[in-house]
Amino acid sequence: MNRGNYRADIFRGEKTKQAFLDCLGEACEKTGWRVHAWCLMSNHYHLAISTPGANLVDGMRWLQGTFATRFNRLRGERGHLFQGRYKSLVVDPDGGLGPLCHYIHLNPVRARLRPVTELPSYRWVSMSWLFEPKRRPAWYDPLPALGHAGELTDTTAGRKKYLEYLEWLAEDEPARQQQRFELMSKGWVIGTGEFTKAMVRENRELVGQGRKIAAELHAAREAVWQENLVDLLRKLRKKESELKLAGKSEDWKLAVAAVLKTRTTATNRWLATTMHLGNLYEVSRKVSAWSRQPDAALLKKLGQTPTPKA
After folding, report:
1. 101 vs 288: CA distance, rounded Å
2. Which pLDDT score, from 0 to 100, does residue 310 have?
3. Angle, vertex CA 171, rays to CA 170 and CA 174, nearest 5
4. Which of 33, 51, 143, 186 counts the most CB atoms within 10 A of its CB?
């Protein structure tokens, strides 16, 4: 979760909210995230996500940085958009994820923006996707919310029962207390007492290993980028050795870099060094220019659908 800088209303218009969801979708495509619930309020957002690739930091850096850049460019503004680093809490997949999804879904109700009955038609909370399966992107997964509400199925009947469950939960304060709603935006963990104790024990074991863990995560992240690079080169029948021999502005090199930036969170610095594309500022400029007028034939060879950008 995060708020606008100085609690500013960063999500004032529908276009801005949609732009954030578009960025979220791109982030999920790059990272493999699964989103279980989301809500956009006027000055903050909530996300409940699973990160199979252990890449929360990498993905959030891209999501917030990219959205802030696009936001400032469109509005002709400068400076920080968000209130510093996002706040993240570790969530118990068994005893915490379901309640967290309920909490997020009820956010507009607590803010008196919509009654529970209108949540399925409210565009800026994931309930609208839950009730309209055809609108769902592949990375959205509502099953934790449905499962916690009574092993409900992802059917018309199951979704109707879930709405009834939220109506009951919104009115039943003891039930919300039992699910620890008051702690959903506080502390550092969401879940049962046993889960919290386990996280404390694990945290103690990791004390002093921060640099080692960071180095391992960095290596794992770059290994993913390298694997994708080799795969794309193979599709073009190119070898890694050719990256150094070819010019910095070779069309096929820029095509590979553009696709890597679409599929992964590869940084401009890594692309510049690994693909011999010049300095990181040249990478940003050249790849952006190429992406605006891509070579459709090259993209097809790379398994990518051309999506020219204005």
Report:
1. 37
2. 39
3. 95
4. 33
pLDDT digits (tens, 9 = 90+) for 184-198: 887 778 877 777 777
- Read off the tokens for 169: 């939960």
Q: What is the mean pLDDT of residues 69-93?
A: 82
Residue 44 has a pLDDT of: 92
Enumerate helices (H) and strands (E) in the chain, giving the number of each.
15, 5
**Mean predicted confidence (pLDDT) in 141-151:** 96
Write down the pLDDT at residue 6.
Answer: 65
Nearest to 146 by CA among 135, 133, 137, 138: 133
125 in Cβ contact with 108 (< 8 Å): yes
For the record, the structure tokens of 160 come out as: 């109707």
Residues spanned by CATH 3.30.70.1290 within the chain?
2-205
Model pLDDT for residues 123-133, shown as the tens digit of each residue: 999 999 999 99
Percent of the chain with pLDDT over 90: 56
Long-range pairs for 142-149 at CB < 8 Å and ≥24 separation?
142/36, 142/37, 142/101, 143/36, 144/36, 144/48, 144/93, 144/97, 144/98, 144/101, 145/36, 145/37, 145/98, 145/101, 145/102, 145/105, 147/98, 148/97, 148/98, 148/99, 148/101, 148/102, 149/98, 149/102
Packing angle, helices 56-75 and 14-31, rounded to 10: 150
Q: In the CATH hierarchy, which fold is given to the domain comprising 2-205?
A: Alpha-Beta Plaits (3.30.70)
Spatial CA neighbour of 59 closest among 83, 23, 91: 23
The DSSP letter of residue 152 is: -
Instruction: Convert the pLDDT of each residue in 266-285 to its tens digit.
Output: 888 999 999 999 887 888 88
